[in-house]
Amino acid sequence: MFNWFRKSHQALSSDEDFYLLTWDSCRYDTFVAARTPHLSAIDKPRKAYTMATYTLPAHVAMFNGFLPHCFDAEPFYNRFVQQLWRISHRSVKIKPLVTFNLGTPNVVEGFRRRGYFTTGLAAMDWFRDAKILQQGFSAFEVTGSGARMQHAKLFKQLESRPKQACFAFINYGETHSPFKYEGMPAQEAVAQPDDRFSLARLFNQQGVKVKDWNFDEKHFRMQVAAAEFLDTVTGDLVAFIRKRGRPTTVILCGDHGECFGEEGLFGHAIYHEKVMEVPLMIFRLNAPPHEPPQAAK
């Protein structure tokens, strides 16, 4: 059995794979409303609060050790109970599962220095335009949306490295506007002229709260449908991980949420509760669940 709480409190190069999966723009209530039989068979999502309102800073935070935060007293979900990973800069009562030396640029680079194959596949343009989001990766590709295509690329990479530990990151774009996914009904795939999630509407909205507003049920349901699609393809990823056979910790979350007309607001990059509320799941495959935290000696 893998001893999570050995004296060094480290995941060494031969011990554990880590997968970080972000469903871009997926808000918590969308995830809960979606039918997710593959993920529900593993665990339930927690309501978490993102560190930022849009893709760039949210991922910078995650790559530096700060996942979305839950207020329940649960290890890894609540970093004050126990953090999953962090770059060491001060002593803590409960050591994180994985720590990296002071001066390590980010978590990804920390794993790379341990001999991990660090690979990233991202849908959103921020990963192309902001090079900070590619730091530490042995391989990185901005793919655009297409979860099955992203998985095919990842599987090919890892099948050629059956015994090498990996840190794998995937940013999925299906839950980001315009909420398109493979196999969606044709009538929904065509944007309407008055589509409130067109780029023109997103970048020219007033950003002002109003008293009289209507919830955009249409686009909420489109995001729900996209989440259901991602559950299906995540089932394929879980099957691949199980076949690979290595102990693996999976972190799945939204990087931020989305407003669907609440108080007259649409989109994200604004501080609103529906932008801040995201789903978070942390689970382990091919090994026993995480043990309770222990105080550092």
Structure characterization notes:
α6 packs parallel to α9. With 297 residues, the protein is α/β, with parallel strands linked by helices. It has one domain (17-285): Alkaline Phosphatase, subunit A, CATH 3.40.720. It has helices at residues 28-33, 37-40, 55-63, 107-113, 126-129, 147-159, 186-189, 199-204, 217-244, 273-276, and strands at residues 17-23, 46-49, 85-87, 98-100, 117-122, 139-142, 166-172, 248-254, 259-260, 266-267, 277-285. It is built from ten helices and eleven strands. The strands form three sheets. It has a seven-stranded mixed β-sheet, sandwiched between helices. A two-stranded parallel sheet has the order 3-4. Helices cover 29% and strands 18% of the residues.
Notable traits:
297 residues; two-stranded parallel sheet; 10 helices
The separation of the N and C termini measures: 22 Å
The general outline is globular
What is the alpha-carbon Rg in Å? Answer: 19 Å
Mean pLDDT: 88
- Helix content class: 25-40%
What structural category do the secondary elements indicate? alpha/beta
CATH superfamily: Alkaline Phosphatase, subunit A
For the largest beta sheet, what order do the strands appear in spatially?
2-11-8-1-7-5-6
Contiguous runs where pLDDT drops below 50 for at least 5 residues = 1-10
Assess the beta-strand content as a share of residues.
15-25%
Under the CATH scheme, the architecture is: 3-Layer(aba) Sandwich
Number of E strands: 11
Count helical runs: 10
CATH structural fold name: Alkaline Phosphatase, subunit A
How many domains, in number, for the residues?
Answer: 1
Q: What is the CATH domain class?
A: Alpha Beta
Order of helices and strands: EHHEHEEHEHEHEHHHEEEHE
Major β-sheet annotation: 7 strands, mixed
